[in-house]
Design goal:
The chain is 0% helix and 51% strand.
């Protein structure tokens, strides 16, 4: 059974930092996309960052570029999200996602992440 377990969320002041971790078990994801999404109440879940299945390239949402850094440790089957210069608008539940197949975004012409597997989410709250 595949499980994705997030940790590292919490309350931080604006300008602060947090590091999220997502540990996967049940299968190996080193050759598949893994990443992070976030969701606030009443809004759709949105993409934050992910590692592609092709060459390990990293992609970021425009709203977090330059502030968030995604990394992965394949030996630990774990993906991380370092979040710096946090803003109140970053407040959300952050979800880890991983794929068991390969996906391609034809519109953006790049490898994509679909979210075949999801973690339970971890709350990140940024106070102003």
């Amino acid at each position: 059974q595949v499980q994705l377990v997030e940790s590292g969320g919490g309350l931080v002041q604006a300008g602060g930092s947090l590091r999220l971790s997502c540990a996967a078990s049940g299968r190996t994801f080193s050759n598949y996309a893994m990443g992070w999404f976030r969701q606030v109440p009443g809004k759709e879940r949105e993409f934050v960052a992910y590692f592609s299945w092709s060459g390990g390239s990293a992609y970021y949402a425009d709203s977090v570029k330059g502030r968030f850094t995604i990394s992965r440790d394949n030996a630990k089957n774990t993906v991380y999200l370092q979040m710096d210069s946090l803003k109140p608008e970053d407040t959300a539940v952050y979800y880890c996602a991983a794929d068991g197949s390969y996906y391609y975004n034809r519109h953006d012409q790049r490898p994509a992440i679909n979210g075949d597997y999801w973690g339970q989410g971890t709350q990140v709250t940024v106070s102003s």
